[in-house]
Write a structure and sequence with these properties.
The protein is built from six helices and 14 strands. It is of the alpha/beta class.
């Protein structure tokens, strides 16, 4: 049986005794029904893993004994920032979960002209917390020890004008480059994925003003969630650690 991986939001030292967060304790004690003497793997966003043994397992409290610190980075060499216009229903959650598994480092939810999700600030804050939990859960599942940041919701143009030295990419059916013909080397990328209805003509023109390079993904029209994951995978194959 695979040893469960649990995110611990505070820095861990080894050896030490650690009480799991309420949410983690609930998962270990109530959902997995683990008992004292069983093994777990903790990670704290430092890039390391911490093998541990459960010493106390109750319904509300779980304590573990950390035995050692193990350096184990599975991060991609490609620093990847996804700007995703918020999609309806569970599509956004699906995109976040799978993009974390594929190695994305940062995700910024975006509002565009054709964004189909209209929420007030309070509901967006709740969504943000939910999306961050999905990212943590994806890390627990896929073996990543660094949790990607889900940034606060931004307007599309505000995100596009940010400069961090990345190659900025926007998908377009009449683009000059495909992913396979992008010039090398690329170590840092910002990928913009539009809404279900696509970006407006004005928004496409705006991305050019902020030095976004248009790329061609293929001859077929993909849904926004398919588009994001296909482009991430292709970029990771070309410049990252998939292949």
């Amino acid at each position: 049986m695979r040893i469960p991986r649990i995110y611990h939001p505070e820095n861990i030292s080894a050896p030490s005794s650690v009480s799991l967060s309420e949410e983690a304790a609930n998962h270990v004690g109530r959902v997995l029904r683990m008992q004292a003497g069983e093994q777990v793997l903790l990670f704290d966003n430092s890039g390391a893993e911490f093998p541990a043994e459960i010493t106390e397992a109750g319904k509300k409290r779980v304590t573990v004994q950390i035995t050692e610190r193990v350096e184990n980075s599975v991060e991609s060499p490609l620093d990847f920032h996804l700007g995703q216009v918020i999609s309806r229903g569970d599509k956004m959650e699906f995109t976040i979960q799978k993009s974390v598994e594929l190695g994305v480092n940062t995700i910024t939810p975006l509002i565009s002209e054709r964004c189909g999700v209209k929420l007030n600030a309070e509901r967006f804050d709740k969504k943000l917390q939910q999306w961050q939990k999905i990212a943590i859960s994806a890390c627990e599942q896929c073996g990543r020890n660094k949790v990607p940041e889900i940034r606060p919701v931004m307007r599309l143009e505000d995100w596009c004008q940010e400069e961090d030295g990345s190659l900025k990419l926007n998908l377009h059916p009449r683009a000059k480059y495909s992913i396979n013909t992008l010039p090398e080397p690329v170590t840092k990328v910002r990928l913009l994925i539009g809404p279900e209805g696509g970006l407006s003509a004005d928004e496409i023109e705006m991305t050019g003003k902020y030095n976004f390079e248009e790329i061609l993904l293929g001859p077929r029209v993909l849904r926004t969630e398919t588009c994001a994951l296909t482009a991430i995978t292709a970029l990771q194959v070309r410049f990252g650690d998939l292949g």
